[in-house]
């Protein structure tokens, strides 16, 4: 192409005044970190959920049920007390299973239903069993609140417990248990049965938040380390390629200077052209960590060049993160044409946040079209153009967001 | 400032060129390219812009290596441009940001060094008549311009720049876009003229603009209203 023996310029340095490019990988890294953190938080939260569901159901079954059955006919309306117990048991099992399967039932209707049961049981238990274990709502209900409201803000749980306390105190007053001892028992019962669920609920929420933060920090750190390693690797590879290219360039220049190589010799000219193209490509690489698309294209270019093809690769802008299929649809037709190219080739990549256009131009010649990969259609997102006009063969792929 | 700040090139007399580069071998190479064109004559060469222009104050076009003695001389470029010197920058720094910075500073044209042989003579001739010349590398920089305040280019202008950058053949671009080569050049040049509004004003930019209006490439009323592309951002087909 343009570079000829007399016009081959050596760079004065190996690192150009590089354009500060946005990190192409940081977006996906952040997403990855958030996902990893969420996974860790989820695992740590699962243990607390199992605890809450188990306590609610075991208490309900082991303490509530025998007491209700024992009290039996002594209750004012035993059917309501037992029916309420059954309803809550069924609800608790379903809500618990759903919670453990990450598909919690809607909280508001369930909470409302629990409160209705609360009121009904207090109304039907009778004065004699107001404070006995047969009035199972004292002990068990708060744990079901927990199961129903898991993962919601703690103030909702507090509101529900307040409603429960109001119901209980109203019932105590309406049953005429207004003596100091009864009020004290009621208060103690409420305090005793509410404090532990609240502690478990708040503790689990705090633990989940903490583990999420720590996992996010760890994931971000890992991503940074990985990126640094990739950058280090890229720098190392570039250094090696520069050594290789510099050697090739200085060899041919020395031979020219010594008069051992003839500038008119086509082979010497080809060597100059190849060395110049390689140097230009190295100078043009301004990205610390190559975008996978550019990495693939550079690899294809290096391969073509090793087969003796002088090739220019010019990239403008940084591609956004691209799914593998899109990347493949962008690169494959080009690499196929590249394998078929003779004399010279020019590969360009122009990228913006919403568009990436890759193009390969090679001189046209007799012969069939390259049997390229049929462009994989990625939902019509990548268009593939191939044409030859007698002068050039032009392959272009273009991706739109 | 206006176009009159630039000394007009006398018709019939060869265009006087001054070459500023700190590598004698490059000066010799450029001189050899320009020698193939009788309408051009090299008046002075050297590695210091001030000295070269003292030796040849009548130079119509200055070919300036953007890196002199290890530093980028964008400030010197701006100074020369606002003083009405037609500067064609040529540099091995063909990264888009540097090219756009050179345009902003008032360079009439930017030539990547590896494009020199094919485009040098044409660039200098066009620069001497205050006409835009956009080699492929510059077209790439313009079409990929990521700055929020970049000029608003029409879809055809963007497409013509992109295809010209890709193929380096206006004939192929014309076939591809199904328009004439002349129209391809018009689209490319119009995009370039829009860049005379980017960056600070310079006599050279005013001259390019005035000549473009004179040539009918753009209409005066098209020029004053370039909005920021950020406000009307739209995808290109």
Explain briefly what this protein structure is:
The complex is a heterodimer of chains A (401) and B (237). Chain A starts with 25 loop residues before the first helix and ends with a strand.
Describe the overall structure:
The complex is a heterodimer of chains A (401) and B (237). Chain A is of the alpha+beta class. Chain A contains nine helices and five strands. Chain A has helices spanning 26-71, 78-100, 107-124, 137-148, 154-174, 180-258, 266-284, 292-306, 324-339, and strands spanning 311-316, 345-351, 355-363, 382-388, 392-400. Chain A has a five-stranded mixed beta sheet with strand order 1-2-3-5-4. In chain A, a hairpin with a 3-residue loop joins strand 2 and strand 3. Chain B is of the alpha/beta class. The A-B interface holds A 2-4, 6-7, 9, 11-12, 16-19, 276, 280, 283-284, 286, 314, 316-317, 346, 348, 350-352, 354-355, 357, 359, 361, 387, 389, 391-392, 394, 396, 400-401 and B 23, 26, 29, 32, 67, 70, 72, 92-98, 113-118, 137, 140-141, 143-144, 146, 162, 165-169, 171-172, 175-176, 235-236. Chain B: Keywords: DNA-binding, Phosphoprotein. Chain B: Residues 16-128 form the Response regulatory domain. Chain B: This is DNA-binding response regulator. Chain B: GO terms for molecular function: DNA binding.
Structural class of chain A: alpha+beta
Question: If helices are DSSP runs of H or I spanning 4 or more residues, what is the number of helices of chain B?
Answer: 11
Order of helices and strands of chain A: HHHHHHHHEHEEEE
Please give the order of strands in the largest beta sheet of chain A: 1-2-3-5-4
Gross morphology of chain B is globular
Organism (chain A): Micromonospora andamanensis
Region (Disordered) (chain A): 1-27
Protein name (chain A): Histidine kinase
Transmembrane segments (chain A): 50-69, 81-100, 107-125, 131-150, 157-177, 189-210
Which descriptors apply to this entry?
heterodimer; A: 401 residues; alpha+beta; Heat Shock Protein 90; 5-stranded mixed sheet; 5 strands; disordered N terminus; B: 237 residues; alpha/beta; Rossmann fold; 5-stranded parallel sheet; two-stranded antiparallel sheet; 11 helices; 7 strands; globular; disordered C terminus
């Amino acid at each position: 192409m343009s570079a000829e023996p007399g016009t081959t310029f050596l760079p004065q340095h190996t690192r150009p005044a590089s354009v500060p490019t946005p990190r192409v990988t940081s977006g996906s890294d952040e997403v990855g970190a958030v996902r990893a953190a969420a996974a860790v938080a989820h695992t740590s939260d699962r243990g607390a959920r199992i605890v809450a569901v188990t306590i609610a159901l075991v208490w309900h079954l082991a303490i509530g049920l025998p007491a209700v059955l024992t009290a039996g006919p002594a209750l004012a309306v035993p059917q309501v007390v037992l029916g309420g117990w059954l309803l809550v048991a069924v609800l608790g099992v379903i809500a618990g299973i759903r919670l453990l399967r990450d598909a919690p039932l809607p909280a508001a209707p369930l909470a409302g239903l629990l409160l209705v049961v609360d009121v009904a049981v207090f109304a039907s238990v009778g004065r004699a069993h107001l404070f006995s274990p047969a009035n199972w709502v004292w002990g068990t209900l708060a744990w079901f609140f927990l199961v129903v409201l898991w993962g919601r803000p703690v103030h909702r749980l507090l509101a529900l417990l307040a409603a429960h306390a109001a119901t209980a105190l109203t019932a105590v007053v309406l049953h005429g248990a207004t003596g100091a001892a009864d009020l004290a028992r009621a208060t103690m019962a409420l305090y005793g049965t509410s404090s532990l669920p609240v502690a478990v609920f708040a503790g689990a929420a705090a633990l989940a938040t903490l583990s999420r933060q720590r996992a996010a920090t760890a994931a971000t750190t890992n991503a940074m380390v990985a990126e640094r390693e990739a950058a280090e690797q890229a720098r190392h590879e570039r250094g090696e390629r520069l050594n290789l290219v510099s050697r090739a360039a200085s060899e041919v220049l020395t031979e020219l200077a010594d008069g051992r190589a003839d500038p008119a010799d086509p082979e010497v000219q080809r060597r100059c052209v190849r060395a110049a193209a390689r140097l230009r490509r190295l100078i043009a690489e301004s990205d610390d960590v190559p975008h996978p698309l550019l990495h693939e294209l550079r690899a294809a270019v290096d391969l073509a060049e090793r087969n003796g093809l002088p090739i220019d690769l010019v990239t403008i802008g940084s591609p956004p993160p691209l799914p593998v299929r899109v990347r493949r649809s962008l690169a494959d037709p080009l690499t196929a044409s590249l394998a078929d190219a003779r004399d010279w080739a020019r590969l360009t990549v122009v990228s913006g946040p919403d568009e990436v256009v890759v193009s390969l131009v090679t001189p046209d010649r007799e012969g069939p079209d390259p049997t390229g990969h049929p462009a994989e259609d990625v939902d019509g997102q990548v268009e593939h153009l191939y044409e030859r006009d007698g002068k050039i063969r032009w392959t272009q792929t273009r991706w739109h967001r | 400032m206006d176009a009159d700040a630039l000394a007009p090139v006398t018709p019939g007399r060869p265009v006087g060129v001054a070459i500023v580069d700190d590598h004698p071998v490059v000066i010799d190479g450029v001189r050899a390219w320009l020698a193939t064109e009788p309408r051009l004559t090299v008046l002075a060469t050297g590695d210091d812009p001030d000295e070269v222009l003292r030796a040849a104050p009548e130079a119509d076009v200055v070919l300036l290596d953007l890196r002199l003695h290890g530093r980028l001389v964008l400030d010197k470029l701006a100074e020369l441009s606002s003083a009405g010197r037609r500067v064609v920058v040529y540099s091995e720094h063909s990264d888009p940001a540097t090219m756009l910075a050179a345009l902003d500073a008032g360079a009439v044209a930017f030539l990547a060094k590896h494009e020199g042989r094919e485009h040098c003579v044409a660039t200098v001739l066009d620069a001497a008549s205050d006409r835009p010349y956009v080699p492929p590398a510059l077209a790439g920089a313009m079409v990929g311009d990521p700055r929020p305040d970049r000029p608003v280019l029409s879809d055809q202008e963007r497409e013509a720049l992109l295809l010209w950058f890709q193929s380096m053949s206006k004939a192929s671009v014309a076939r591809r876009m199904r328009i004439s080569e002349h129209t391809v050049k018009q689209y490319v040049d119009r995009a370039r003229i829009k860049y005379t509004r980017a960056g600070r004003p310079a006599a050279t930019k005013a001259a390019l603009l005035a000549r473009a209006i004179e040539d009918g490439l753009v209409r005066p009323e098209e020029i004053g209203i370039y909005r920021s592309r950020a406000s009307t951002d739209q995808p290109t087909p």
